[in-house]
Amino acid sequence: MMKSYKFKIEPNRVQMERIETTLNLCRWLYNTALEQRKFSYEKRGISVNYNMQQNELPRLKKEFPEFKQVQSQVLQDILRRLDKAFKGFFRRIKAGEKAGYPRFQGKNRYDSFTYPQSGFSLDGKYLKLSKIGNVRIKCHRQVEGKIKTCTIIRKNGKYYACFSCEIETITHSTGKQVGVDLGVRHLAITSDGEFFEHPKYFRKSERKLKRLQRIVSKRKKGSNRRRKAVALLAKLHEYIANQRKDIAHKISRYLVDRYDLIAFEDLNIKGMVLNHKLAKSIVDAGWNQLVQFTSYKAEYAGKQVIQVDPYNTSQACSKCGQIVKKERKDRVHSCSCGYTEDRDVNAARNILHKAVGHVPTLKCGQLELNLI
């Protein structure tokens, strides 16, 4: 399987200028290639593909010598990125979804370039990058497997190196299974009765965000003061996102280390955020991120993550299967069969039952009903 590692790099002034020059040239090539495809199809009825554009790169370097500052495979990867955007566009059209035609990239929208095979090497505290130099890198953990690609990313004035590595899965079985109910009061509740608190990082930083947003709105567009205010606002948003990632990593690691099968609800989050009373709390929770982090960690550990239909998981009794109607304010599940439990723990157990194919049976006199 593939696993990614992200490290901060600290280029010096000259290296920083080379990275910025590379990003600008990559953006220029992306926009030019997009314009070529658009013009050829609209004016001449010719569909330009990746191979046609790649074959023109040698001639491009002769006419524009500045492109010799960029490693050749980096230029090829830009055209692959554009080709991938068009394939996604046509796939969405075929599926009847909102298409989203590939857009031209502005100065602040193109922030990465990739060495797909060669042109880079990791040597201790330094990352050797072709056409850029030996850049100091902070490797805070050991890189496992064979490095396949290296992507340089610019974000909020900082630079990062992201390695995609091919590794083998490592299996460590525990023989345990768990269902996880996601919520806004608690971020996650397990079928074993464990509660993970919802830190509400966005809520805690909301006053700071509002203050910075007001400052941005008062600044004149295009001014240096507005640019600085936007940078401060972006840093705060990045800080909140990193806090949310941190708690998702910790919970997902805890679950994967202790269970072989982890079951989540397959929630329609896009539909749920239409409820304006809960939208902010749902987005702040980052449920989808938690499921994604748990999924890739489980795949690496040779374990399984299953998402099940959430229908009636909160209303059904996990002991006998009877439907016990509850409002959102009711926090305790109490069934006529005598089973009493926290509402969310009961829901987590129903999620686990669905994941393992267990169907609780309710007997009503001589009648036996199977309830899912």
Can you summarize this structure?
The chain is α+β, with helices and mostly antiparallel strands. The chain contains eleven helices and 16 strands.
Task: Fill in the keyword field for this structure.
single chain; 372 residues; alpha+beta; seven-stranded antiparallel β-sheet; five-stranded mixed β-sheet; 11 helices; 23% strand
Write structural notes for this entry.
The structure is a single chain. The protein is 42% helix and 23% strand. It has 372 residues and is α+β, with helices and mostly antiparallel strands. The chain has a seven-stranded antiparallel β-sheet. It has a five-stranded mixed β-sheet with strand order 10-9-8-11-12. Helix 1 packs across helix 4. It starts with a strand and ends with a strand. Residues 358-372 have low confidence and may be disordered.
Topology:
Blueprint: E1 2-10, H1 13-44, H2 50-54, H3 57-63, H4 72-94, E2 112-115, E3 120-123, E4 126-129, E5 133-138, E6 146-155, E7 158-166, E8 177-182, E9 186-190, E10 195-197, H5 201-204, H6 206-218, H7 224-258, E11 261-265, H8 269-272, H9 279-285, H10 287-300, E12 304-308, E13 332-334, E14 340-342, H11 343-355, E15 361-364, E16 367-370
Parallel strand pairs: 8-11, 11-12
Antiparallel strand pairs: 1-5, 1-7, 2-6, 3-4, 4-5, 6-7, 8-9, 9-10, 13-14, 15-16
Helix pairs in contact: 1-4, 6-7, 7-10
Largest sheet: 7 strands, antiparallel
Mean model confidence by pLDDT: 90
Q: By helix and strand content, what is the structural category? A: alpha+beta
- The share of residues in helices is 40-55%
Number of helices: 11
Tell me the number of strands.
16
Task: Give the neighbour order of strands across the main sheet.
Answer: 2-6-7-1-5-4-3
Low-confidence stretches: 358-372
How would you sum up the global shape?
A: elongated
What separation lies between the terminal Cα atoms?
35 Å
